[in-house]
């Protein structure tokens, strides 16, 4: 029997070429996807740090005790003037510039910036005021 060329599917060579092209394209874009994911994770953790400063500011105000926050490596160690065990918060994608912060019961936080190493270079961010709304 005679089969016309139009009724046949793709040849094995054609399928292998398409798979090779797709493999190359995915290997080129895979690194970009991972970088975007890491950057997004870092942004989320930066927001967690900023929110933590606000939360502990409120706690200092309402408890009547000052709070100390120490950022070292990838951890934040929070201790209150009350006889509580220090709280430790660990971060996956942030490495801090070592610094100690004082959160007073009068809603002030000193110093006013905290540093994070990004690509081995320090980048500094403002500590949000407890009284700020939104971002």
TrEMBL record:
Keyword Cell inner membrane: no
Protein name per the record: Prepilin-type N-terminal cleavage/methylation domain-containing protein
Pfam families documented for this protein: N_methyl (PF07963)
Species for this entry: Pseudoalteromonas peptidolytica F12-50-A1
Endpoints of the signal sequence: none
Stretches that traverse the bilayer: 12-34
Keyword Ion transport: no
Keywords noted in UniProt: Membrane, Transmembrane, Transmembrane helix
